[in-house]
Specification:
The complex is a heterodimer of chains A (124) and B (132). Helices cover 73% and strands 0% of the residues of chain A. By secondary structure, chain A is an all-alpha fold. In chain B, helix 3 links the parallel strand 3 and strand 4. Chain B is globular. The chains are: A mainly alpha (124), B alpha/beta (132). At the A-B interface, helix 1, helix 2 and helix 5 of A face helix 1 of B.
Chain lengths: 124, 132
């Protein structure tokens, strides 16, 4: 079971890195330009998925960084306007943190990496 | 007598979350799962699987968790089956909304693999106690 878990964690590290790259590509044209509604919603969807999966798969810092970016993007979606310089700055900081965490993610850092069946059965 | 092993229809679009939950619920807790990758797959398979409980992700593309819930409840054989939503939106007003449409429980995402099985069993047992 531990091998199965580690295989999932390793695969998921790659997924998170790919998602961070995809988010960056989606938000690139946002430099001073309004982000299209469809792109914004798609990006929020990816960030939301990262938040949930990273948290469950044992990467709480990355999950928290995704939440921060999701909050910024959610505000943009609610107002429906181009980001203000302050919003853009906050978004860039959140994105930068998310990307840098995803880039150096190692499976061994997952809180689930060393779990075994007995520990999982014992629960918390 | 309290049953410990359940038949669960589990609907989740994210493959790695699905895989983790499957390990926890099948290998660790000993439940029998029918795993669905989307709402429409659940609507096709759940009536014949006859689950004791349905575990439903809320935010899914195409058919979301709420739509899936309403579609599943149209089947006579599922209309009394407890449904548990899994969602990141767990503020009181949102939880109340899920409960008002008939959810037996809500589990916050990201969920903790160490406690997921216990949370589900507690919801199921509470539901069983309330209908007796």
């Amino acid at each position: 079971m531990r091998d199965k878990l580690r295989e999932i964690i390793t695969r998921h590290c790659r997924t998170l890195r790919d998602q961070a790259i995809e988010i960056e590509a989606c938000l690139k044209p946002a430099d001073g330009e309004p982000i299209g509604r469809a792109v914004l919603e798609r990006t929020i969807g990816i960030v939301h998925q990262m938040r949930g999966s990273a948290g469950t798969i044992g990467f709480p810092d990355l999950s928290a960084a995704a939440l921060s970016l999701e909050t910024e993007l959610g505000t943009l979606a609610d107002t429906g306007t181009a980001p203000s310089p302050e919003q853009y700055e906050r978004m860039a900081v959140s994105l930068d943190r998310l990307r840098s965490l995803a880039e150096r993610l190692a499976p061994q850092e997952s809180q689930l990496y060393d779990l075994d069946l007995a520990t999982l059965r014992a629960g918390r | 007598m309290t049953r410990q092993s359940l038949r669960i229809t589990y609907v989740e679009d994210e493959p790695d979350i699905r895989a983790i939950a499957q390990i926890v619920l099948e290998d660790v807790a000993g439940h029998t799962l029918s795993v669905c990758t989307c709402g429409s797959e659940a609507v096709r398979s759940a009536p014949s699987f006859r689950p004791d409980l349905i575990l439903l992700d809320v935010m899914m593309p195409d058919m979301d968790g709420i739509e899936t819930f309403h579609a599943l409840m149209q089947f006579t054989e599922l209309s009394a089956t407890p449904v548990v939503f899994m969602t990141a939106k767990v503020q009181a007003v949102e939880v109340e909304r899920y409960r008002s449409i008939g959810a037996a429980g809500v589990i916050a995402k990201p969920f903790d693999p160490m406690t997921l099985a216990g949370e589900i069993l507690a919801i199921w047992q509470a539901r069983e106690a309330s209908v007796k």
